Structure formats: structure tokens, C-alpha cells
Amino acid sequence: MSVHTPIKDSEIIDGLNIWYLKLFGLWKVINDYRTTGKKNSIINLQLTITLAYSIPYILCQLMSCYFIKMDLKKITFIFLLTLSKIQICIKVLVVWFFLRIQCRLSNLMKKDFIDLPEHKKSEAKQIFKKIAFQTNLLSVAAFIINTSYYIVSIGFPDTPVDYILHHTGNTFRATTGRMKIVGGWYPIPFDKTPYFEIIFFYEASMMMWVGTFLAVYVSLFYQTLMCLYAQFAVLGIKLTTLDSGDGKEKIWKSDSERYNELLAIIKYHQKLLRYADELRLVYNPLVTMILGTGVFVLILAAFQFLFGTTTSTIFIVKSLIFLPYQAIEVCMFCFASSYLETASSDVLFAIYNSDWYKADIKFRKSAQMMMIRAKKGETLKSVSIYPINVETMMSIFQFTYTVSALMLKTTE
User: Fold this and answer.
1) Cys-Cys link to 157, which of 13, 179, 187, 215 (CB 3.0-4.6 A)?
2) Is the pTM of this model over 0.85?
3) Cis before residue 194, ω within 30 degrees of 0?
4) How far apart are the C-alpha atoms of 122 and 134, rounded to whole Å?
């Protein structure tokens, strides 16, 4: 990667909140890599700790199928949080391996990414603020809900050790023995001292670390998508400068001056299309894996909530927190990709409304080529085929309800 200057706070899109990037060191990771081309100790440490927490837990749960009695209820109970550990490993590994592209995509956070005339900057500022508010809202919601889940889980452990070791069926039929934080099995006598205390500390620290960085990384991906959406929206504002001179718009001195402005806009459009290609290169496989595991997590969580008939307030609270977090994560990608698709395809209408057909032949040909390029909106795709948008989100929720209800009917 060629060396770039670090991004200053004053260069960031108006209203965009990057406090979480600074708090967890990712802003320094991005700026250090931009200036040196090397991964610093922060990202290496985050990767090491995440894998050290997650991989042993995942392996133990896979082994559990051979050592304890299982039924549908118990399998879903044990593997519910295992999938979230797989998710965080995927997210951290994607950032680590594709840090060069992620740092390049961080250019989209700049408010002067597209050069605008002075009389258009206030309009762009309003668009930036609106999109930044939408971005900040879901990111903060993800942090609050995820933090609430692991605080409740650690403060009020409600997973019976006896159920993991000896029971099947409904979790709450096991009323004796100690309570642990998550439904994990381990190849040690974790119902006895000091193993129980060691496992309790391991699960508590793992929940805090993994739970926090689940929200951090998904917010980073979501913010990048929304910034690309914002730049396409601002490009639409720049296209209004091509108007033939009616109203308050500039009256062009000559056809060549107007044509040169169109060429500058085409260059910005081409630049955004290249960024969109790079974003899909990284995010398409990522979204496929995250939404794939996310669907399973939603199904298992919904099944646990429906099957776990209990008056336990803690169980109900945890379920009502966990389900919305997974739903928010799905919404982040689907909403952002849908916004991006709309804004990128709106470029076609913006240039069409610029009275292009009244201009000279050079202008008309270039405008037509740009409209052809903008006809197909930019969007994320799952398995490189299926577009990710609001319709995808509704299909996921419908599928989740259908499968969890079918699983519930099967157990009955």
C-alpha cells in the first residue's frame, strides 16, 4: 500500500461519531497503517486475544457431542453462543487480512472526498449530518444492547451445570447444582472447585471481550457502507451543477466549460465505483458468513425463547436483549446496502435532469455513457448472487420465525 497521510478529526464527515474506533484503538490501527503500511501491535493483540478466547470454546462445544447426552433443545442451547464466537473470529480476521483495503475505504469518511462549489457545501453538510445520525443511531444501539446482554449474563448466571452434564429436555427442569454464565461444556470436572471458578472467570472475561468487539467490528463495517452511501448522495448534489443555467444554478460561459465539469464528475463517479468494487471484494464474503451465522443464531435464540417455558425473569430479559442485538446486526447490513443501492442508482436520474439533451454532442455522449454506468445500483451480494437489501432482511426474519416454529412443533 502506498503511504497516505493520517485522517484528521477535522476531515471527517460532519456529525459522524468515531468514538468507538478511538476507544478500542482501531482509529490508531487505521492511521498507523495508512502512514507506515504495517499492522501495529493493537490489531495483532486484538486478533490474538480474540482467537485465544474463542477457539478453545468452539472446539470444546464441538467435542461435547461425543461426551454428553444431546437432544434438539440441548444442541441449540450449547451452540447458540458458539456461533457468536465464530462471528467475532470472522470479523477480526477479515479486518486483519484486508486491513489495506479497509484503510483505503476509510477515505470515504472525509467530507471533502468530492469537491463541491461553495454554494453547494451547505446542502452537502445537511446530507452528511442526516446520514451520520442514522449511522450513529444503529451503532450506539448495538453497543447498548450488546453491553446490556453480557452485564446481565455475568451478573445473573442462570445456566445449571447439572443440565449441561446430566439432563436433556427443558433447561429449567435442572434445579440443583451451581449456575454458570453460558451453556458451554468443557473436558474437565467443571462442576467442582477450583475448576468451576476457573471456568466462571474464563466465561466472564470472554463474554466481556467478545461481546464488546462484536459491536465494535460490525459498527466499523456498517459505518464504511454508510459513508459510501453518503458520497454517492453528495455526488448527486454535484451533478446539479450541470444544469443549463435555469434558476439559481451557474450559467456556463461555454459548452467546453460545462463539458469539463462533466468530465470531473465522471472521474468522481469512476472513483466511487472502484471503491464499491473494493468494498464488495471484502464485504460480500463477510456478509455471506455473518448473515448465514446470524440467521442460525436468530433461529436458535427464537427456539430457546419459545421452548424455554419458564417464569425466570433473567432468562426472559436475556432473550429479549439477545434477539434484538442479532436483529440489529442483520438490519445494519441490509439497510446500509439498500441505501447504497438507491443512492448509486439515483445518479442516473440526477444526470438525466441536467438538461444533457440540450448540450453539444460531446456532452451528450459522455452523459449517456455515465447514465449507462449508473443504471445498475451498487449493492452488497450474498454468495455473489443475491442482493442484500430491505427485502432480504424481511425474508430473514420470516425464515427465522418459520424454522423456529417448526423446530418447536417437532419437539412437542
Assistant:
1) 179
2) yes
3) yes
4) 19
